[in-house]
Amino acid sequence: MVVLFLSLLLAHLLGDFLLQPTTWVNDKKKRKIRSKYLYYHIGVHLLLLLIATQFSFKYLLAVILIALSHFGIDCAKLYFEKKKTAKTWFFIDQLLHLMVITCIVYSYFPFEISIENLYSQQNLALITALLLVTYVSAIILKVLLSKWSEQIVKVDAGNTNNAGKYIGILERLFIFFFVVLNFWEGIGFLLAAKSIFRFGDLKESKDVRLTEYILIGTLLSFGFGILCAMFYKSFIV
């Protein structure tokens, strides 16, 4: 089961990301179903699927179904995707392809998903820790740093840029997994990298409050990441 799933997934990744030139993508967006590259793309997938299944007659129906579904999903994306929804449709497209592959594998190797296992102590602890280290800690940090941020950051009412928020979330996720994997050196590398990138801002600015804001924010963010990881590890020992 696992071998079949990985083989089909590898074929999909190769066909969609490695063996699909940008010229093909642009031509498909422009000419849609009339684009010859759409059919080249499906042909590449068909060949990769045959190779992945070792040209076995047993999986021939699966190969055909995946190729046809890929064509249908790609056509739907080409006609319904707009400039504003491009990112959303990218993930919908990939999720649908993954669901098709999963269903095909299930038809050959039925498997059961135990709901009880989903509610295990380790899984609940992991979900809780990930929520804490991402969005919960982001809100807590925003509250704790409000004293400095109100004085330093000039917020535009029409500004919806949350880049700083997501950078912080990624930073804490890295720290979380570094601690879980006992790769404490990674935290040092991450701190050094952040210091290098922030050095320019601190050098150009004469505002002591900005220095305090960055330093306190960094220490709190790293601290939350470590604490959440230790919280999770206490449930898996």
Question: What's a concise summary of this model?
Answer:
The protein is an all-alpha fold.
Number of helices: 11
Biggest sheet overview? none
- Distance N to C terminus: 30 Å
Helices and strands, in order, run as HHHHHHHHHHH
Identify low-pLDDT runs. 155-160
Supply the number of structural domains.
Answer: 2
Query: What does the radius of gyration come to?
Result: 24 Å
Number of strands: 0
Q: What fraction of residues sit in β-strands? A: under 5%
Principal-axes shape call: extended
Q: Which structural class best describes the helix and strand composition? A: mainly alpha
Helical residue percent band: over 70%
Kindly state the mean pLDDT as a whole number? 88
Pfam family, one: DUF3307
Protein name: DUF3307 domain-containing protein
Keywords: Membrane, Transmembrane, Transmembrane helix
Transmembrane segments: 43-68, 89-109, 124-145, 173-193, 213-232
Tell me what you see in this structure.
- The chain is an all-alpha fold and 237 residues long.
- The longest helix has 29 residues, at 208-236.
- It contains eleven helices and no strands.
- The protein folds into two domains: 2-108, no CATH class; 116-236, no CATH class.
